[in-house]
Structures are given as structure tokens and as C-alpha cells.
Amino acid sequence: MAAAAGAGGGFLAGRLTAPGPPIDTDHAAEIDVTIVCQTVTSPCNVTFLVDGNAKWTLLGGCQTAPCSLQPIPTAHRWTGPACNSFLVEARSALTDNETVALCEGNAIAVSLLAAGPAGPRSMGVSISRSADGTNWTLVMATVPAGLTTSDTVLAIYDTGGATAMPAEAFATLSYSQDGVFYGTNDSDGILDVAEYLLLSTSRYPTGYRVTIADSQGLLFAGTLM
Q1: CATH number belonging to domain 5-114
Q2: Which residue of 15, 48, 81, 202 is most buried, as measured by CB atoms within 10 A?
Q3: What average pLDDT does the chain have?
């Protein structure tokens, strides 16, 4: 596959692989997949999956980040109802996913985040639901050195990609106003391992997406589930 330009300085680096021919099944639809690569120094090596089954793998990157790589039309076939819901995933140095509804003969568009190999600028964050079900708990498992609560921001998006909470610095998060609490054992203004965020499940239901970033770029992206 020849290198192809995407929006914002994106390019595919000559590799797009796919498994064998699809099985003969009842229904078919198309997913037009746009990968948004977040890194310049490391190409995004992305595998796209539908309900856990790999559809293709590509290698692409950015001349300036973030960038949208060329959309890839992806056929999907299934048995059962003519309209069905499927989990689509882009697996790279980070994993982004979304649940989509497919109907026979139709095409939908989906945009998923990707990044190059994890490095010192990536955060590891676990996401779980609290025992009483009222909050999502995001615990920081790995944190780059020197991240400050004034420069590190959280943003939340609904299942359609609209902004549910604009980017807000950790230092100014308020549960009463934002539905988000930042938990820390000190007041040094530095993010540390084991610190956490609580997000209201009533305000941010299953399927909403969160990103954490600072002035140098994206640090984490994940889905509340």
C-alpha cells in the first residue's frame, strides 16, 4: 500500500494487513475507521478489532500531532438480527474503544485514538466502578516524573464524541461543579502513583471517554466501563 496523506499531517507507512476472506454470514455493513495518531516520534502500530476479532493492522504516523490517518473502509458480517451492536477497538500503545450499532447495508464512521510505543510520557491508569456504584475510580498506576496538578488536565466526552466536561486542571477539579474529585495525600502539586480520581456515574455513564494530558501532549485515554 502506498503512503497516503491524512488530515493534519498523517501518513500510512506502507503496511496494512488483514486476515483471510470473511465467512459467509447473513448480514453485512461497513465501518469507516479513522485512526487519530497522538505521537510524532513513534509511529502508531494499530490493530483494529470488532468484538475481539482482528480486522486489520496498520502502521502510520504524524508529521504534526495529533493527526487523522486516512479512513479505512472495513466490512463486517454477522449472523442474527439485521441491526446489532458491536464493540470496536483500536489497540496500540493505548487502547481506545467504542460500541457501535450496525444495520445491514449501512455504513457508519468511527474515530479512535492511537499512539506509538509507550514511553516516559505515558500514564498507566486503572478504571473501575466503586462498590456502591456511585463513582468511577481512576487510579494512577504509573506517572511520568514532574507532572503538576496545574498543568495536567482531564477531559470527558460522551458516547457520541461531544464534550461532557471541557479540559480542567486537576488542581481545580470540583465534585460539586464537575462531578469529579481528585484524591491526594499531600499538597505538593505533583501527581504521584496511587493518587486517584472519582467520577460520578450518574453524570458520566458507561461508555463515556476520558483523556488526561498536559502541555506536552496526551498522557492517557480510556473508556468508562
Answers
A1: 2.60.40.1120
A2: 48
A3: 86
